[in-house]
Amino acid sequence: MATVQKKTTRTTKKVTETKGQVQSQSTVTKSSQVSSQKTLTITKKGQFFSDSFFEDTRQDFQDAIKDVLTKCGDKSSTGDDITTYRSLRTRELKDENQAIKSTDDELYHKIVVDVNDFINGGEVSVKTVEEREVVVEGRVERKQGNTRSSKSFKRSFILPEDIEVEALTAVVSSDGVLIIKAPKKPSSATQSQISVKVQKQVQSSVTKETTGQAVDKTVSVKTENVQHTTKASQDNVVSQKVTQQVKTVRESTSTSDTASRPLTIVKKGLFFDDSFFEDSRQPFQTAIKQVLEKSNVTSTQVDDITNYRNLRQRDLKEENQAVTVSEDQQTHKIIVDVQDFINGGEVTVKTVDEREVVIQGHIEKQEGNTRSSKSFCKRFVLPEDIEVESVTSVVSSDGVLTITAPRKPSAVPVTDATKAVSIEKTETKKQIQTTVTTTEEQDVKEPQVIIQQVPQVTQDVTSQKDTEQEKTVTTVTKQVKTVTDTTTSDTASRPLPIVKKGSFFDDSFFEDSRELFQTAVRQVLEKSNVTSTQVDDITNYRNLRQRDLKEENQAVTVNEDQKTHKIIVDVQDFLNGGEVTVKTVDEREVVIEGHIEKQEGNTKSSKRFCKRFVLPEDIEVESVTSVVSSDGVLTITAPRKPSTKQIEGNIETTQTKKVVKTTTITTIEGEEDSEPAPVKPKEVVKKPDEHTVTQKVDKETVSTVSQLDKTVTDSTTTGTVTKVVTIIKKGSFFEDSFFEDSRQLFQTAVRKVLEKFNETSSQTDDITTYRKLRQRDLREENQAVTVDENQTTQKMIVDVQDFVNGGEVTVRTVNEREVIIEGHIEKQEGNTKSSKRFCKRFVLSEDIDVESLTCVVSSDGVLTITALRKSGTKQIEGTTETTQNKKVVKTTITTTEGQDVSEPAPVRPKEVVKKSDENIVSQKTDQEKSVSTVTQQVKTVTDSTTTGVVTRILTIIRKGLFFTDSFFEETRKLFQTAVKQVLVKFHETSTQTDEITTYRSLRQRNLSEETQATTVHEDQQNHKIILDVQDFANGGEVTVKIVNEKEVVVEGHIVKQEATKRFCRKFVLPEGADAKSVSPVMSADGVLTIITKKKITITTTKKETSEKEVSVEKKTSKTVDRSTFNKVLTITVKGAFFSDTIFQDIRQEFDSSIKTVVEKFKIKTTSSEQFTAYRNFRKSNPKNENQAFAVKDTEDVWKAVIDVCDFVGGVKVQIIGGSEIKVEGRGNRQEGVSVVSFSFMRGFILPDDADLEAVSAVMSSEGILTIIAPKIK
């Protein structure tokens, strides 16, 4: 038991342990000592006596309370200890009656502190001092009438020496109990160094028979060459021969031998309060929504949970029981609602045959003289990679059962040559012989052969080289039960889990499968001679299946492309009350089976189906997935194996008239050797025109490349290029799988808004609380916004729900560097009309492909903008100096025509670049040498007061808010530390506001350099300067410049109330900093971050190579088989049709087609309003007859234009047979309570001289599609 100490003086303690003796030296110093302090983040959890996180500390806290009550003599018989203690603290808040406890166990050192009186309106902090001491401080101010009182406490705890200080955590419950946990270091038992070299050879022979008799299985294990180096090194070679008797049981008798194991159900706190269930809440809520949708239960008066509970009270049956299954890389999770069976009833969970989980519930209820009984039984098949022994079952206090099954650790990939595993299989009739050889201490797992309870044999062995070794044989016999299916002997089948998604025609996951399924439906209707003009094809098909459910009229289709093999089957009639299974057989066949039983009066009927599909040979069977929509369309996707293997290292590819060479890099003296990554043969092979470029640098020649640097100042903003982005509409944000990756980010943004505005509610969830906040006070400050970046994309998520219904939201890009989102809405409340607007700006990263930017809004108003990063080769910038002869680099680069040439990855030219302002690129062509020089333009300013001073002004890049934009994530803590230092220096403290607000108030009163938060940080890669310039950014001017490539100067200037304020900060760059890489970035709220990369010096000399000429070979003609040419065109979105120049030469034809429609249908309008009148007419009556389209054919190009505004998001353009363009579209329209679907299809004949490879499709922002087919000259 550790002691609790309260410090009243500044004491420095030094504790030294040597061979069991402890020396303690205590000195009181007058001057403040410099100590290493670290502030711990305090994590918030649920109620102390409800949240299971605090389970192991509750007794400690209760003991501490009893100690306080005993000490103060305040024991009450009327209330419990907790209530008595709280009353005592309310009457008199002092250190002596604060509950504190410090305990130890084998794993942790725990500290429990009651801080209930300091968390609401006060402040609590935890920090470590010198890695040996934990200090807990609290402060609160209270106002009673005209009197203001302040209370504070400070507790200090000395940590034991065996503590992992870095892993120390601080967690506070919602009712104010602070728990500090310090993990202990692993016991440092003295271990002798053992060098082990093991070579194992495992050989197993298995004989399979189908007679049902016992079969002997022999496995021999040989171990050789074992070397152990210890104080007494000894050798021992053990050869184990294990004979396993395998018992085969026929399927007909397997039920009698079923092995079941009951699971203990652990009880926890409330499902939505206890943090244990945090990861399960979202899947459970989704399951509830599915039940409500299925039962057609909706209500705006109460939330989904209440609706669901009311439904279960009215009608308790399995069909409306919330059940869901989710899985990730670590676990397989089953969540079932059992609330109606835990109070007065019984719930059991068991595993059967280590492959199945069975959940059963039973309850009896007495209502008057009537006794009713309800029960349920749910069965779930576990995946094969589950650790059945580790399956756990936990139920919340409000009856949500969560079963968690951890997955087995995946096998370590074999990469080393010494770990290679070779497997040979020879099959003769029904005999299989398997030989597995492995080396170097790696276990080999033989399928379906389990060896257990092998006794450990320890013998003294003396290691001798090149000597014979003694061998000991151990024999173990074990019975293994094998079930043999009499109908499918020797067949290896694997069940596939079926994942559930949304509606087939609503969920974007099925977007690529809809057309295929509709075609299959049409084929069934044609085959059955079913036609109707009253309803659509899908309704006709469903009516047919209701009348006559048989395999002949089941919609089934198979489709394949270069990447996938897809199977689509309608299983709607077997989902509700029936069973559908999918499995792979022998890794070559997919089998889909369905079964359902129906009761009609006294008659019981049973329906089944079985579909078998043979997979192509190039399918990745392990990656086959099975997904079913909520309305019963099953989609099985089987990805194909890559056609060509990617080979790293040196590759030479020889083709006719094509040369492909890779990059060879040789480094000497301290350089790391790494495989050159950049040459990808997959990209080289795809291009028909290739040329080889050879770059050489002699000992006397230095070749440098620099990028033309564009310097932009705030005053020059002419030439702005704006492009409107089309917003595509999808389903509900929390239901449509398109938004799956964005949900967590949006929920985090919502929580931040609620925390910022102190909005909490135990009655509703975060989203509902947020929506109510927005209804009360619609402004930009409480709008949920977040930005996320990864290696492939930059994503912006903005809540626009309040502007989509009856308002307007637009998204546009400016100069291909900035995204602007604007919203506007007008609301009428009685006689008052109010208008609300917002505008959000986001700066895109430099490596973003602006053309790939997509904008999607959910039906409930969450806007997601996704921008892909450029996937091309890196741009070569800067220079590579060659000054030493000890390092040799030989580079040969092969590229296809039109591609950039980039240096291989290990040389890292992008980091080395910025060392020079000039670059010479030398290329040798046939019997000619040409030298081209590119000089970088840099803005230089000469200081008139200092001769010889070269100044370079830097452009400041603007980002989002400092505490929101992820760009500043690594610098936030540094800035907060700088702010604290300013506040401490000026003795500024406040318990009413946070430190940032207190700092801003100080700056408003005293705008001087002394109160300006500034800090400098340095790591191995970067040198960072963080500076607060908020007071100069708005209405003033901030500049950053480099002086003599050694100094960073930051200046600010602003005029306020006829007074001028200035500041100037100078920072000397360290010797290792690359002045060319200095990058200043300013947050929207005025925190400036200046990042300077450290130099990575690569001094190389390229050896002279034999002069090779650059040969460029081009194909002068393209040979295309037009009759077999089929291609789906990608639709590129451009600007407005009547302003973007790309549509300039087709506008007249489109105007004429509009006029034709207006005249044909006698639409009343003026000549200037024809387009608007046409669009309004189409909204109420979208038919092929009134769709505007036109064709323009010239000597150089063929163009077709067609209005697809009503079908945006569902338009498909494809070339068929090299002669026809087919355009299809599908849209939905709400009419009352029903949704009406409509579609169109148009065909255009291409001219014979059209260049099929160059055909493109472009859509304007308002939905006008233009197809462009250049002609072969």
From TrEMBL:
Low complexity bias locations: 18-30
Domain SHSP: 91-199, 314-426, 547-654, 776-885, 1005-1113, 1180-1273
One Pfam family from the record: HSP20
GO molecular function terms attached to this record: unfolded protein binding
PROSITE patterns per the UniProt record, alphabetical: SHSP (PS01031)
Region of interest: Disordered: 1-30, 670-690, 896-917
Gene Ontology cellular-component terms listed: cytoplasm; nucleus
Ranges annotated as biased composition (Basic and acidic residues): 680-690, 908-917
An example Gene Ontology biological process: protein refolding
Residues in the signal sequence: none
Entries under InterPro entries matching the protein: A-crystallin/Hsp20_dom, Alpha-crystallin/sHSP_animal, HSP20-like_chaperone
Family listed: Belongs to the small heat shock protein (HSP20) family.
Protein name (record): SHSP domain-containing protein
Native species: Cherax quadricarinatus
